[in-house]
TrEMBL record:
Source taxonomy: Bacteria, Pseudomonadati, Pseudomonadota, Betaproteobacteria, Burkholderiales
Entry keyword Ubl conjugation: no
Main localization (coarse): membrane
Keywords: Cell inner membrane, Cell membrane, Membrane, Protein transport, Translocation, Transmembrane, Transmembrane helix, Transport
Homology family: Belongs to the TatB family.
Taxonomic source organism: Duganella aceris
Membrane topology value: Single-pass membrane protein
InterPro entries, per database record: TatA/B/E, TatB
Compartments where found: Cell membrane; Membrane
Name under which the protein is recorded: Sec-independent protein translocase protein TatB
PANTHER family, per database record: SEC-INDEPENDENT PROTEIN TRANSLOCASE PROTEIN TATA, CHLOROPLASTIC
Length: 169
C-alpha cells in the first residue's frame, strides 16, 4: 500500500489548494472522498465474492468427500449384509438337510396363518389388560374392567335398544 504520513498529506493538500483553488477545493475533496468510498466498497465486494467462491469450492470438495465416504460405507454394509444373508441361507439349508435325514417319526406341528393371527390377537388383548395403569387387584375389588372390550362391542353396549329405526342426518 501507499505509505502516506501526515507530512505527505499536508504537502498534497497545499499543492491541491494552489492548483485547484480555494473555491473548487471543497467540491473536489467531496468528489475524491466519494470516489475513495466507492473504491473501498468495490474492493470489499470483490474480496467477499472471492472468499465466498473459495468457501463454495471448499464445500464442494467436502461434499464430494462425504459422498464418497457414504458410498464406501453403503457398499461395505451391502457386502456384509449379502455375506450374512448367504451364511444364514447356508445354515438354513444345512439345518433342513439334517432335519430331513433325522427321525421321520418325530411330531411336527404346522400352524395355519389363521391360528397364528388368532393367537396374536389374543396375546395383544391380554397384554393390554396386563399393562394398563390400574392393578388387577384394584380392578377386582372395585369392579373395574378385567378384559378388553372392542370398539364395536362398546358401541353395541351403549346403543339405545328401544328405537329400531336408524336415524340419518
Amino acid at each position: 500500500m501507499i505509505d502516506l504520513g501526515l507530512t505527505k498529506l499536508a504537502v498534497i493538500g497545499v499543492v491541491a489548494l494552489i492548483v485547484i483553488g480555494p473555491e473548487k477545493l471543497p467540491k473536489v475533496a467531496r468528489m475524491a472522498g466519494t470516489l475513495y468510498g466507492r473504491a473501498q466498497r468495490y474492493l470489499n465486494e470483490v474480496k467477499s465474492e472471492v472468499s465466498r467462491e473459495i468457501e463454495l469450492e471448499e464445500l464442494k470438495n467436502l461434499h464430494k468427500e462425504v459422498k464418497d465416504a457414504a458410498h464406501n460405507i453403503k457398499s461395505d454394509v451391502e457386502n456384509s449384509i449379502s455375506q450374512n444373508m448367504a451364511d444364514v441361507e447356508n445354515a438354513w439349508h444345512d439345518a433342513d438337510h439334517t432335519h430331513d435325514t433325522s427321525a421321520t417319526s418325530s411330531f411336527t406341528s404346522t400352524a395355519t396363518t389363521e391360528d397364528v393371527s388368532r393367537k396374536a390377537r389374543e396375546f395383544r388383548r391380554k397384554k393390554l389388560v396386563r399393562s394398563s395403569a390400574i392393578p388387577a387387584w384394584y380392578k377386582q375389588r372395585h369392579g373395574g374392567k378385567l378384559h378388553v372390550t372392542s370398539g364395536a362391542a362398546r358401541v353395541a353396549r351403549f346403543r339405545p335398544r328401544g328405537n329400531s329405526q336408524a336415524t340419518f342426518y
